[in-house]
Each structure stands twice: as C-alpha cells, then as structure tokens.
Design goal:
The protein has 311 residues and is of the alpha/beta class. 41% of the residues lie in helices and 19% in strands. It folds into 2 domains: 184 residues, inorganic pyrophosphatase (n-terminal core); 115 residues, Roll (Diaminopimelate Epimerase, Chain A, domain 1), CATH 3.10.310. It binds manganese (II) ion (2 copies). The site of one manganese (II) ion (MN) has 6 residues, from loops.
Length: 311
C-alpha cells in the first residue's frame, strides 16, 4: 500500500503531534502504510511528553506532495493551518474536533468530527471500535494530548468522553495523570527562555473571519505578572508579525493555567479593535483586556470573534 502522511496543524501542540503518532499507529494496524510527521518542531510541553514516553519528535515537513500522494489530517481541517500544498494532495481521512471551515475535497473521504476536548479522545474510541489494543507508550502520548487540550480536564471544552478517556489511558500508561499532567503543563510555561517573537508563534493559528485575516496566539503561564511585564515588547512583536504576514488583527491570549484566567493583548486597526471589544463586551485598556475564565481559543475566543466580525 502506498505511503500516506498523518499530521496535525502548523505550530503543532501536544494533540497535533501526539494524536498523529497514535492515529498513524492505529491506521498501520488496520492495514494502511502511514508515517506520522509534523508541520513544526514540538513545543517545550510536547517535547516533555514525547520524552516521557520514549518517542522521538516526528520528522518536520512543510510540503507533502513530493513524498506522498495522500494524507490524513488530525486536529485540524482549515487549509491555512495545514501543509502548504494541501490543495495538491488527496486527503483520505480527517479526525478532528474543531469547527469546519473552507475545507473542500474532490474525492470522498473518511471524516470524523466530534465536539470533544481532544482529538485523542476520538482516536481512543476508534482503537476500541476496531478492537486494537493501545500500547502503554501510545496511551501515554494520547493522555498527554488530552491533558494539554483540556488543561487537565478544566477547560470548558472538556466533555464526559474526555473524563472517561484520560483516566483509562493514564491507567494503560501507568501514570498518575494529575501529577504527571501538572508537570507536563508546567514544562510548557517557561517563557523566560524565549523572545517575544518566538512566544507569539509557538501556539498561533490564523483564521479567516468574514474576509479578515485574524491571528490568535496563546501562551500558557503560571505567573501572569511575569508575562505582563513584557507587554510592550509583545505588542511590538505582534505589530511586526502583523505587517510581515498581512494579519488584519493579531490577538495574544496569555493564559494562567493554575487559575484558568487570561489576559488578551490586541494589535490592529481601530475599526478591528472595536469589533474585538464588541465580541467580548468590554473596552480594551491600552490594547489589553482581562478575560476571566477564558482558557479556550476554540470555544471561548473564535466563536465570539467570528460572530462579531460577521455581524
Ligand atoms: Mn491542536
Ligand atoms: Mn486539539
């Protein structure tokens, strides 16, 4: 069987990389010939998880068509978040938990979307449905993906399915998911070692909102004051990135993973900033807004922004 790549989105997180590894393993058991690859290097949190379960970081690709004719997507579907030549390859499978936007194919495909907290929760079900047992290291990287996406089951994206999948996978992996999870999340919060330009790109996604090119980046911290001390430098880096990449608006969500609160920094025209203010029902103060209880870009940021831009 001809080889296919399995990968998650650009600027990969632990779900994008971990679930690609798990789904590739499952598909190979089911008779496909796949390789898990990534559209970027692992972030610090993902590197911690890979090391904990003995995985090497998947090979990084930016284009697929020179090596394979067909691909499988996990943890994304929007083409601007995918491989650069996604339009030139055949997408045979998608397993995802995001909104579906601008996704078109010329061929029939397997498409599975569920509104659960993590793609690994869907893949966990698929292992069961196919009677394939989950090796302990694969269970560990899947548990890591769920911990990451749900912030240890605390994000509002968390569903009863995630409450079931994480303990089950943690048991297979032989970990205490509370203590392992906190260590893993903390491994991703060391912002002191990185420049503002690096930090605004670690976990950033582009969205097309009513024709506007909107960039939403998120960083996890355990000390909001430490991050906010660098506010002016963040705003400068965001302005530079917005000019270089033609973003109409750039939003940085700085999330305190310990108390589940966020601070937003916003760069854009006055008109676009007004849309942002409408989306969240309050005024920006010097390009800054407190967003108590907001931790999920997918569920608490993109939907109100989409609604405000389309109104
Ligand atoms: Mn992701
Ligand atoms: Mn995800």
């Amino acid at each position: 069987m001809e080889k296919e790549f399995v990968f998650g989105h650009q600027n990969p997180d632990t779900d994008a990389i971990g679930t690609a590894i798990a789904y590739s393993y499952l598909q190979n058991k089911l008779g496909y010939n796949t390789e898990a690859v990534a559209l970027g290097e692992p972030n610090d949190e993902t590197a911690y998880a890979l090391k904990a379960f003995g995985f090497k970081a998947p090979r990084v690709i930016t284009k697929a068509g020179s090596e394979v004719k067909a691909v499988m997507l996990v943890d994304h579907n929007e083409p601007q978040q995918s491989v650069a030549d996604i339009a030139d390859v055949k997408v045979t499978h998608v397993v995802d938990h995001h909104r579906i936007m601008n996704f078109n194919t010329s061929n029939p495909l397997y498409y599975r979307a569920e509104p659960v907290g993590c793609t690994s929760t869907i893949v966990w079900k698929m292992f069961h449905e196919n009677n394939v047992s989950i090796p302990s290291n694969i269970a560990g990287i899947m548990a890591s993906a769920i911990i990451s996406d749900t912030l240890l089951l605390k994000s509002p994206t968390t569903t009863p399915d995630d409450h079931e999948s994480l303990p089950a996978l943690a048991k297979l992996a032989g970990i205490d998911y509370q203590s392992y999870g906190l260590d893993m999340l903390k491994a991703g919060t060391n912002i002191a070692a990185k420049s503002e330009t690096e930090l605004i790109d670690v976990d950033a996604k582009s969205f097309s909102l009513n024709g506007k090119n909107v960039r939403v980046a998120q960083i996890n911290v355990v000390d909001l004051a430490e991050a906010m001390a660098r506010k002016e430098a963040f705003l400068a880096a965001m302005k530079t990135a917005a000019t270089a990449s033609h973003y109409d608006m750039f939003m940085l969500l700085i999330t305190n993973i310990l108390d589940s609160d966020s601070r937003a920094l916003v760069v854009g025209s006055d008109e676009d900033k007004a849309v942002f203010e409408k989306a969240f029902g309050q005024k920006l103060q010097a390009s800054e807004m407190a967003l108590p209880g907001v931790v999920s870009r997918k569920k608490q940021v993109v939907p109100p922004l989409t609604q405000a831009f389309e109104a």
